[in-house]
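Pilot study result, target chain (134 residues):
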Amino acid sequence: MDTAFSLVVIIGLAAYVQAKTEPLTSKNDEAVIVDALTHIIEASKNYKAGVNDGYSSVSMTLLSDAGLIPADLTTGRNPAGGQYTIDTTSSTGYNLNATQLGAQLCGRLTGKISRFADTSPSDCAAGTLTIAVN
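Predicted structure:
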């Protein structure tokens, strides 16, 4: 009887632990996009530190070719089906975009990211989150 009870307790604990840890390991679309955007921003800052033209030459392809971001951020799609792009580059900054997000997802992401970055160029009605990186 003690063996059967111990076995039931062990199986129950294992099921409980699995149920509690699974949500922690699976990320939702918002978290995946925020992680990708912050990764791209940090990579561009690392790139900028090694060149003398500021952000003027930064691009998604260049960051990927330099091994600073995974290639799938350049060639793949974000979880909403859009892409990550860099435009409006200058020596002092650039715009980082996440496209095809939809108005609601873009609005939620803008709310999260605007706490630490300038998202004023965003056009959430068109589903594009834009971060002005300086």
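One observation from the pilot: Residues 84 and 98 are 5 Å apart (CA to CA). A full batch analysis is planned for the follow-on phase.
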